[in-house]
């Protein structure tokens, strides 16, 4: 049963620190989709903030909302328009609602072995760490490396410190840097005002096109990371909390049944988000509510200056936050290390997820198949 003390929301300095643990994943993807699909920045930020706040209040655990990663990558690289993106969100919401209602998520949770889930988390952790080091840390050249190095030292010194949680000074450092070198403050102030989300209604043709172009590549990743791996990591950190995959699937579906109509991007849950919030101090849904409030305020009052808002969180700082989020996922791989067959299976799935196109679905299917073949003595991947 759920522990009452863990189900109570807190809004202390540790929850504030944890609130920014997933920022390195979320913010660049949101910014990239707004630019590529020519979305209304205020609507996207407001919708994203509302989804975070609702999730924090509902789960009362550090289970945040994330942009759909496969969708984001395809939209950014192929410049798919906002109408198709919103149609894809609605298609994904309907698909996940059916998977949840029909009990298929429960079946999947029973079938997929833990070693495969650990492999998916390993692959995601490797990808996040790679992106952090390759694309974010050196984004501002020499200044960026110095900024990232200082943030890294602060986190190493303070990680796990409940009196002075690491996220607080790191976010403050990034904000000071942004105000000094990046943000046009007069332009930001001039654009201040109330901005409400633009209401939209996806057309049937956009839903169909979005399903083919965006939903089909995304759903396998969501099944592995957003559903199965999220349930697993919540159990890792909060073993007395009974969280079902069906419940996660329903909230995932509900978000994407709402987002397309208020100008938001498709969203999900994710094991990386839980790891990020937990790593930097979040232990309740308070960290998620705080995080969502930041996005809501930025969208409502500063949405007209979106190009300046994106500079508030410098990429080198986001990269360091993302690196530690990835490392926390990689560390979870250690609990299968004692059994050689599980170690090999998790490593194989992790390699597929990290390095192959459509690697998450390949790792999920191949890893599960090898596990059951091993139980019949046909491979070496079983106990």
Low-confidence stretches: 1-5
For the biggest sheet, the summary is: 2 strands, antiparallel
Helix content: over 70%
What's the rounded overall pLDDT mean? 92
How does this structure look, described?
- The chain has 383 residues and is mainly alpha-helical.
- It has one domain.
- 71% of the residues lie in helices and 1% in strands.
- The chain has a two-stranded antiparallel ribbon.
- Helix 5 packs across helix 12, helix 8 packs antiparallel against helix 17 and helix 12 packs antiparallel against helix 13.
- The two termini are 30 Å apart.
Primary descriptors:
mainly alpha; two-stranded antiparallel ribbon; 19 helices; 1% strand; disordered N terminus
Layout: helices, strands, pairs:
Blueprint: H1 4-7, H2 13-18, H3 23-37, H4 41-59, E1 66-67, H5 69-78, H6 82-101, H7 104-111, H8 114-136, H9 141-158, H10 167-181, H11 185-190, H12 204-237, H13 245-258, E2 267-268, H14 271-279, H15 286-302, H16 306-309, H17 315-331, H18 340-355, H19 359-375
Antiparallel strand pairs: 1-2
Helix pairs in contact: 3-5, 3-17, 4-15, 5-12, 6-12, 6-13, 8-12, 8-17, 8-18, 8-19, 9-10, 9-17, 12-13, 12-14, 14-17, 18-19
